[in-house]
Design brief:
The structure holds two protein chains of two kinds. By secondary structure, chain A is α+β, with helices and mostly antiparallel strands. Chain A has one domain: 2-Layer Sandwich (Alpha-Beta Plaits), CATH 3.30.70. Chain A is 26% helix and 18% strand. In chain A, the strands form two sheets. Chain A has a two-stranded antiparallel sheet. Chain A is globular and about 30 Å long. Chain B has a single domain, classed as Cytochrome p450 (Orthogonal Bundle). The mean pLDDT of chain B is 96. Classes of the chains: A alpha+beta, B alpha+beta.
Chain lengths: 66, 395
């Protein structure tokens, strides 16, 4: 399992796009978009941080893809 | 023998530091009883983890009209009276529906497109201040007008009417008198109801109000109330952070020098300022809609909950030496913008404004200094967005 962004719960705070810009973005409505489903290295760490900072629980990051 | 629950919130002594007694509250239990401005018993959350857990819990309501909502100021009294609530006082699903209408103006991309505009506004304010001074009032001449102008442009609220806005908002958010506050709130709301009508007659989608007026997505009344709330929330907090941020940086000249020497250092420094100041405790108020068991206590349905950032953001288990201002630390996990579904809509705009304003300030005026000590500045009463209403400086 990699990176998931649930637009149904997203509140568009933009923390994910700010924290892990190569992994997440916001669409024009402000909702989460996943750019990289299986990031590695530093991008993976940033994705985990984005999950921790996401205020709504829309960002989920699973097991590392290695 | 038991002692009466302490009053909360308490007053700051030095405006850029939390009230002295908060340090002791942090040493106590994660949840404890306190007494509000209105004399209610409510729960105070003193730790970071419990604060985040509760702010994300759907059983907590933000609706000011619900019995038991913690009344910490005259301003909250006024909100409990309102038939309609703005975003900050709504619960899902209404909250989420309305928030999504505003989001397109607050995305990271849209906010970053405003950089040049914000830089121009910042430099024009500095030009004007430097023409008059020294000395100057950094709050009145810089910290206040910059975010005010930015949010007016974002909303499409006419800048020509700034004197009316600022006077009415001051009467609403600074008063200790419910009648005065009610009157000022009514004047502002009437103004925005008229503005929505004008936008319907003459469509102009450059700003948020014009983009939504007459589209049928939102009623005219709700749009007027939203515009009024966004105008207030969009500048009051940022103005406080620019001014208190400047105070903290002037109080820490070595760190200020390091920030000035490295253009990238302002980004983490702003996060640390947000953590260190935690000015918006008054936004993190909730009431329980069910019994909630947490940390060995039960918050009963109908009980109020205060979740202040000024305590959670100084939790020593999360932020090492929390009372030390350290512009280089990783403070990114702070909840100065709140947490959960109500987390600040304009947080990325605020970040950018703070980064630009606090960088330009010392680029233009390297010798800037206060003419009084930080302790001599007048703190706002507890219950308000924390900040100062005057900051005498010279250069």
């Amino acid at each position: 399992m990699g990176v998931e962004g649930d637009q149904r719960v997203c509140i568009g705070a933009g923390m994910c796009a700010l924290t892990a810009p190569g992994v997440f973005d916001q669409d024009e409505n402000g909702l989460v978009v996943v750019l990289t489903e299986a990031p590695s290295g530093e991008a993976w760490d940033k994705a985990l941080r984005a999950e921790r900072l996401c205020p709504s629980g829309a960002v989920r990051v699973g097991r590392s893809s290695g | 023998m038991t002692t009466a629950p302490p009053a909360f919130p308490q007053a700051r002594v030095c405006p850029h530091l939390p009230p002295p007694a908060y340090a002791e509250l942090r040493q106590g239990p994660a949840l404890r009883r306190v007494t509000t401005h209105a004399g209610q018993l409510a729960w105070l959350v003193t730790r970071y983890d419990q604060a985040r857990t509760l702010l994300k819990d759907p059983r907590l309501s933000s609706d000011r009209r619900r019995p038991g909502f913690p009344v910490i100021s005259v301003q909250v009294v006024l909100l409990t009276e309102r038939k309609r609530q703005a975003l900050i006082g709504m619960d899902p699903p209404e909250h989420d529906i309305q928030r999504r209408m505003f989001l397109p103006d607050f995305t990271l991309k849209k906010v970053r497109e405003r950089r040049a505009d914000i830089e121009r506004i910042v430099h024009e304010a500095l030009d004007e201040m430097m023409e008059h001074g020294p000395p100057a009032d950094l709050y009145r001449e810089f910290a206040l007008p910059v975010p005010f102008r930015v949010i007016c442009r974002l909303l499409g609220a006419p800048w020509e009417d700034r004197d009316f806005f600022q006077d009415a908002i001051r009467r609403l958010v600074r008063t200790f008198d419910t009648a005065e506050g009610r009157q000022a709130g009514a004047e502002l709301l009437a103004y925005f109801e008229h503005l929505v009508t004008e936008y319907k007659k003459t469509p102009d989608s450059a700003g948020l109000i014009g983009r939504l007026a007459g589209t049928g997505q939102i009623s005219d009344d709700d749009l007027a109330l939203a515009a009024m709330s966004l105008l207030i929330a969009g500048h009051e907090t940022t103005a406080a952070m620019i001014s208190l941020g400047a105070v903290t940086l002037m109080e820490n000249p070595d760190q200020l020098a390091a920030i000035r020497a490295d253009p990238e250092a302002i980004t983490p420094a702003v996060e640390e300022l947000l953590r260190f100041q935690s000015i918006a405790d008054s936004a993190n108020l909730r009431v329980a809609t069910a019994d909630i068991e947490i940390d060995g206590v039960v918050i009963k349905e109908g009980e109020g909950i205060l979740i202040p950032g000024s305590l959670a953001n100084r939790d020593a288990e999360v932020f090492e030496n929390p009372d030390t201002f350290d512009a280089g630390r990783d403070a990114g996990g702070h909840i100065a913008f709140g947490y959960g579904r109500h987390q600040c809509l304009g947080q990325n705009l605020a970040r950018l404004e703070l980064q630009i304003a606090l960088t330009a300030l010392w680029q233009r005026i390297p010798t800037l200094r206060m003419t009084v000590s930080a302790e001599e500045l007048t703190a706002r009463p507890p219950g308000a967005i924390q900040g100062i209403d005057a900051l005498p400086v010279t250069w």
